[in-house]
Specification:
Layout (H helix, E strand, L loop, with lengths): L1 H16 L4 E3 L1 H4 L14 E3 L4
Antiparallel strand pairs: 1-2
Length: 50
C-alpha cells in the first residue's frame, strides 16, 4: 500500500511539472465514447506547437 501511495505521489508530481508538455490524447481515449474505458484521461501525447 505504501509503495502504491508513493507511485501516485511521484506521478502527480511529474504531471504537475510537465503539464505544459502533454495533453490527453482524445483520439484514443474517447474511441468508444467519452472516457469509455477504465483508463480515464490517462492516454497522453506530447504537446507540439507545430
Amino acid at each position: 500500500m505504501e509503495k502504491g501511495s508513493q507511485k501516485m505521489d511521484d506521478l502527480r508530481s511529474w504531471l504537475t511539472n510537465h503539464q505544459d508538455e502533454y495533453l490527453v490524447d482524445t483520439h484514443y481515449q474517447d474511441m468508444y465514447g467519452y472516457n469509455g474505458s477504465k483508463n480515464w484521461n490517462s492516454i497522453l501525447k506530447r504537446f507540439s506547437e507545430n
